[in-house]
Amino acid sequence: MTLVYIALGSNLASPLEQVQAAIRALGDIPHSRVVNVSSFYRTPP
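Structure tokens predicted for 2-amino-4-hydroxy-6-hydroxymethyldihydropteridine diphosphokinase (45 residues):
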């Protein structure tokens, strides 16, 4: 198994929903799994 770290971010409408959808999509990739997800942070634009 290869371990990778992926950083996600969004400045689109509904950023939290966008990132959560991306995490779900990553988990749907065959032969892969999401092991852990860090806290979400919001920063000013």
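The CA atoms of residues 23 and 37 lie 8 Å apart.
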